């Protein structure tokens, strides 16, 4: 029994060495970490496709697909995550302004402008990289393939500058395939309960028939007037559209009324969400929207 204290001391010493080694390894991992914070899971899903480097740690402030980013208010912990990140990826254009206000803009990658200087640059880039120019800025820019490609290039540059290994080629190829599928969509007449899919519809050459007043109100995140809603219901009643695009994340009694009216007229309803539901990545989210529109028959 005299040897017991010696054995106990030896075990304790080994445990301390093991804990010290694990702590040192953890410190090394933290020192090598490249932290990427994104406003929504749309952008985190894209970043994860650009690098499988274990040092790249990606997190999103808005993870749950049920949250409406328009009305989201970040917590102090959310803002700390963004400030501590090495790279911050956002949509820009005011959509997720909370994610880059007070953040060093040198580490922010945005699909749309986040200040006056970048707006001028974006206008130039928009002409260089797009076959068309959007008159009204629509903040749902993740449905614009060219904008996503451009953002992915900038994120890749940031990651490489930070020392990360990247493998963006496969993602870029998949984006190009999705772009071709959009061009091949039927030339449908469409209306939207929220102008969420504008970029996708424009690329496809579809005929957007949402009444002007209703559309302008929802673009400005205002409540459409009674006359705007009446005009929309008239479009549905007259069967002037092939499909109604419905955003379930911004569902209200008014949008439910529009959906019910479309269903009563046997007009197909295609749900296109604001952000992917939990467990779905960006590419499958994008392709689901494309495939659902492809299944609609033109009247």
Characterization of the model:
With 299 residues, the protein is α/β, with parallel strands linked by helices. It folds into two domains: 33-179, Nitrogenase molybdenum iron protein domain (Rossmann fold, 3-Layer(aba) Sandwich), CATH 3.40.50; 184-294, Rossmann fold (3-Layer(aba) Sandwich), CATH 3.40.50. It is 49% helix and 11% strand. It has helices at 4-32, 41-50, 76-84, 116-129, 145-161, 169-183, 198-204, 212-219, 226-237, 253-264, 282-294; strands spanning 34-40, 56-62, 87-90, 108-110, 189-192, 207-208, 243-246, 269-271. α9 (226-237) packs parallel to α10 (253-264). The termini are far apart.
Describe what is shown at a glance.
One of its GO terms (cellular component) is cell envelope. This protein has helices spanning 4-32, 41-50, 76-84, 116-129, 145-161, 169-183, 198-204, 212-219, 226-237, 253-264, 282-294; strands spanning 34-40, 56-62, 87-90, 108-110, 189-192, 207-208, 243-246, 269-271.
């Amino acid at each position: 029994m005299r040897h017991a204290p010696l054995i106990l001391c030896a075990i304790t010493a080994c445990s301390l060495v093991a804990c010290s080694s694990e702590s040192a390894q953890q410190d090394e991992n933290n020192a090598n970490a490249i932290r990427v914070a994104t406003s929504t899971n749309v952008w985190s899903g894209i970043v994860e496709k650009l690098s499988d480097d274990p040092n790249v740690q990606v997190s999103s402030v808005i993870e749950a697909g049920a949250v409406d980013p328009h009305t989201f208010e970040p917590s102090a912990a959310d803002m700390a995550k963004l400030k501590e990140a090495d790279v911050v990826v956002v949509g820009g254009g005011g959509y997720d302004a909370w994610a880059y206000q007070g953040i060093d803009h040198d580490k922010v990658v945005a699909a749309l402008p986040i200040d006056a200087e970048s707006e001028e640059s974006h206008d130039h880039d928009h002409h260089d990289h797009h076959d068309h120019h959007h008159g009204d800025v629509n903040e749902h820019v993740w449905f614009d393939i060219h904008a996503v490609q451009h953002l992915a290039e900038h994120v890749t540059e940031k990651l490489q500058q930070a020392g990360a290994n990247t493998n963006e080629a496969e993602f870029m190829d998949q984006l190009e395939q999705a772009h071709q599928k959009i061009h091949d969509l039927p030339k449908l007449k469409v209306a939207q309960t929220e102008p969420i899919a504008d970029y996708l519809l424009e690329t496809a050459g579809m005929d957007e028939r949402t009444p002007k007043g209703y559309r302008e109100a929802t673009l400005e995140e205002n409540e459409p007037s009674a006359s705007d809603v009446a005009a929309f219901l008239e479009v549905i009643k007259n069967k002037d559209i092939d499909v109604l695009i419905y955003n379930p994340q911004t569902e209200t009694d008014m949008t439910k009324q529009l959906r019910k009216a479309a269903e009563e007229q046997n007009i197909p309803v295609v749900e296109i969400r604001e952000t992917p539901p939990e467990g779905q990545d960006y590419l499958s989210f994008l392709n689901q929207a494309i495939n659902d529109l492809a299944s609609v028959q033109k009247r």
